[in-house]
């Protein structure tokens, strides 16, 4: 049932978001455990999966990188998740790499990312997206898309 879970449901997870981003899953019916020999210890379902055409014009690696961070702890606020040092280092390195590829003056040769500066930038992006107090378990696909756009506009990449 995770494939068809909606925001706010207990089974809503990264699999739900990624599946619904690329496809339209539809729960058709449950299959009882007594229909199998030997009967399994879990319930089964039949799910119809229809690919979206055309596919969303978003790089899946970028999308999945954002969703992966958001669902590290799906009940925590995004501001709490994006304050973590490992997330800030990843985003800082990716931003510096992109700036270096584009020939921007912001690119540092320093390996050490200034975490306080990154934290300020990232929290500003979350605030601009009105997502500081959002939790991944309650966010719809459009919320993730708008957040990805805001991060992209600020020069952040997730892959």
Automatic annotation (TrEMBL):
<keyword id="KW-0808">Transferase</keyword>
<dbReference type="InterPro" id="IPR029063">
    <property type="entry name" value="SAM-dependent_MTases_sf"/>
</dbReference>
<keyword id="KW-0949">S-adenosyl-L-methionine</keyword>
<keyword id="KW-0489">Methyltransferase</keyword>
<keyword id="KW-0694">RNA-binding</keyword>
<protein>
    <recommendedName>
        <fullName>rRNA adenine N(6)-methyltransferase</fullName>
        <ecNumber>2.1.1.-</ecNumber>
    </recommendedName>
</protein>
<feature type="binding site">
    <location>
        <position position="1"/>
    </location>
    <ligand>
        <name>S-adenosyl-L-methionine</name>
    </ligand>
</feature>
<keyword id="KW-0698">rRNA processing</keyword>
<comment type="similarity">
    <text>Belongs to the class I-like SAM-binding methyltransferase superfamily. rRNA adenine N(6)-methyltransferase family.</text>
</comment>
<dbReference type="InterPro" id="IPR001737">
    <property type="entry name" value="KsgA/Erm"/>
</dbReference>
<dbReference type="GO" id="GO:0003723">
    <property type="term" value="F:RNA binding"/>
</dbReference>
<dbReference type="GO" id="GO:0000179">
    <property type="term" value="F:rRNA (adenine-N6,N6-)-dimethyltransferase activity"/>
</dbReference>
<dbReference type="Pfam" id="PF00398">
    <property type="entry name" value="RrnaAD"/>
</dbReference>
């Amino acid at each position: 049932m995770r494939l068809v879970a909606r925001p706010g449901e207990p089974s809503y997870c990264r699999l739900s978001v990624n599946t619904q981003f690329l496809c339209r899953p539809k729960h058709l019916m449950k299959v009882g455990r007594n229909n199998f020999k030997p009967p399994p210890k879990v319930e089964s379902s039949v799910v119809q999966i229809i690919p979206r055409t055309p596919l969303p014009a978003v790089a899946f690696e970028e999308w999945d990188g954002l969703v992966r961070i958001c669902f590290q702890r799906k009940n925590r606020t995004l501001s709490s998740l994006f304050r973590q040092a490992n997330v800030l280092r990843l985003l800082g390195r990716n931003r510096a790499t992109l700036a270096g590829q584009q020939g921007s003056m912001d690119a540092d040769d320093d390996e050490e990312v200034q975490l306080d500066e990154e934290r300020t930038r990232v929290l500003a992006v979350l605030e601009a997206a009105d997502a500081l107090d959002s939790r991944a378990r309650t966010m719809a696909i459009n919320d993730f898309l708008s957040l990805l756009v805001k991060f992209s506009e600020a020069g952040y990449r997730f892959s």
